[in-house]
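One-letter codes give the sequence; the fold follows as tokens. Both lines appear below.
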Amino acid sequence: MTKKLSSSERYLWDYIQENLNDIPNLSIVKLSEDANVSTATIVRTTKKMGYSGYTDFRQQLITQGKNNSQYQNLEKVDHDIKQAIFKNKYEVDNTLSMLNVGSIEDAVQKIRESDDIYIFARGFSEFIAQEMLVKLQLLNKNCVMSSDPNIIMTMSKRIRREALVIIISLNGETKELVAGAKNAFNNGVSTITITTNETSSIAKYSEMILLGYKSQTSYFPDYEVRSRLPLQVISRILLDAYVIRTQNKRELD
């Protein structure tokens, strides 16, 4: 749904998501001042996101908060710590709302049909790739994983058309991963990319994109160590769905 937002509206929606716990107490004028956007932008954005306006959006948050007793234990938590906790909740909630069931089903089918699977990742995404590798191997899939730049670029040129490449990249711009995706694409190899950037360089070489939501807040701004939680959620859902579908197929057989 966020695809139809302009850049300023997308900025505002990200700002709202990062400060969702405060919104019920903010008037439209105060939010306009805090986010440095016009009140018209606020109204337009909330309407595009399915509400009748800011008042409707704010009221639904208030109602949801009253009905949501599962977070009462956080009432006495320091405000900044609470924001850090809810940052993770927002990432998961938004990632789940962005997931396309059809894309998951297509990806499951691709994994099932592929004789060989190659997983490429760099940085913190390597931990997710390693988990996927182990799980796929336990499911009797012929799977290899690499995080080495030279190996990725060399290996990707030799992958057979019948294989599948899975790329895990938060921003989709890591040059070695882009090169690997391009090599696979040129060889007619199917590529599934798990990312939070649907307009990335890798995306144009990907047959399927599984998209997550990346929070704009980072508590380590001087380093590229942003949370990979959205990618972790998607990878787990994908492999859980694969197990479910393959088990169902065995039962039918």
